[in-house]
Design goal:
Shape: globular
Strand order of the largest sheet: 1-2
Oligomer: single chain
Order of helices and strands: EEHHHH
Number of helices: 4
Number of domains: 1
Strand content: 15-25%
Largest sheet: 2 strands, antiparallel
Number of strands: 2
């Protein structure tokens, strides 16, 4: 049986930096999302967009997570990068 968990990530752009909140209906997924958003908190668009997927290995997470969880974590990073790009575009249109 495969379980699919929901993840919610909110972002705020303030003074050139991004701040995030994350939640999930799974405790493990919530923890992974929290780790990601805490690590990226206060970062610029360029810093976030330049985070390579390989950073998961440097954290030591890839060795401890199942391939499915690793993929989910990388999908969260992809979502954050997408939000940052979209929000940056919106902010540049409003200025």
């Amino acid at each position: 049986m495969k379980l699919n968990y929901q993840v919610w990530i909110l972002s705020e752009f303030k003074e050139g930096k991004f701040y995030f909140l994350a939640d999930s209906d799974s405790q493990l997924t919530k923890g992974l999302a929290g780790l990601l958003v805490e690590g990226l908190r206060g970062s610029s668009k360029e810093e976030i967009l330049n985070v390579p997927p390989e950073f998961i290995e440097k954290l030591g997470l890839k060795q401890t997570l199942t391939p499915s969880r690793t993929n989910g974590f990388l999908n969260m990073l992809k979502l954050v990068k997408q939000r940052v790009s979209e929000q940056s575009s919106e902010n540049s249109k409003n200025t």
